[in-house]
Each structure stands twice: as C-alpha cells, then as structure tokens.
Specification:
GO molecular function, one term: DNA binding
Shape: elongated
Distance between the termini: 11 Å
Domain Mop: 64-129
Organism: Leucobacter triazinivorans
Radius of gyration: 19 Å
CATH superfamily of the largest domain: RNA polymerase II/Efflux pump adaptor protein, barrel-sandwich hybrid domain
CATH topology of the largest domain: OB fold (Dihydrolipoamide Acetyltransferase, E2P)
Helix content: 25-40%
Protein name: MerR family transcriptional regulator
Largest sheet: 4 strands, antiparallel
Keywords: Molybdenum
Length: 132
C-alpha cells in the first residue's frame, strides 16, 4: 500500500500539513509511523478524502457538460497578439495554459487577477508516476 508523509499528502490535495494531521487524529485518514519514525497516511484513505472534498455538480444549473476535468484558479498571465490569445491560470499547485481567439478573450473579459475555470475535455491524457 502507498503511504505519503504529511507534507506530501498536503501538497497532493492542496491543504495544509496541519489539516492532514488533524484529519489523521480525527480518524478521517488512516495513519501510521514509517521506518524512520515519521507519521504517514495511506494513499487509499487520502484518495477517498480528496473525493469527499471535491465540489459536487450544481444540479440547479441548466448547463450540462460532457467534460469532467474542471480547474478553478486565478489568471496569472494574459497575452494577445492579432487573432490569438494565451491565458495562464494557477489552479492550486497546477498551471493551466489555454490558447483561444482574441475575440474569446475580449468576450470573457479576462485579466490578470480574474477568477476563471478551465474545463478540459481530453481524449489523450498522459499519466506518469515514479518507479516504486
């Protein structure tokens, strides 16, 4: 079973180290002590907890989407040249870059500091991991 140190677990789901420790103390995460004497939490319990934190779909919204990958964050850069624009979002620890038309940029009224959500529909997603 995969285990993560407190700081790793916190970084993975975007909460503080103290939150992970509190959840472990409250029994919301399975925890143990590793061979070096550090507290670790199980990857399986961390995954379950992160799903519980995920925002639920707004059932009152009349809009339905086939795309399930949504990242809300803050616009950190906007560049527009001719017909094309590039917008960068910082969504927690993740950077998302979007290319769009300059017209779409104007219609969305995006500027550095704006809140925005990137909705991604991808049929080709590459997943990587470290060797165990």
């Amino acid at each position: 079973m995969t285990h993560f140190r407190i700081s790793e677990a916190a970084a993975l789901i975007g909460v503080s180290d103290d939150t992970i420790r509190r959840w472990a103390a409250d029994g919301l995460l399975q925890s143990a002590v590793d061979a070096s004497g550090r507290q670790v939490v199980s990857g399986r319990s961390l995954a379950a907890r992160s799903l519980a934190l995920a925002p639920e779909a707004d059932e009152s919204s009349p809009i339905r989407r086939s795309a399930r990958n949504r990242f809300t964050g803050i616009v950190t850069a906007v560049e527009s040249s001719g017909l094309v624009a590039q917008v960068e979002l910082q969504c927690g620890p993740n950077r998302v870059v979007s290319l769009m038309t300059a017209e779409a940029l104007r219609e969305l009224d995006l500027d550095v500091g704006s809140r925005a959500t990137a909705i991604i529909k991808a049929t080709n997603v590459v997943i990587e991991t470290e060797k165990r």
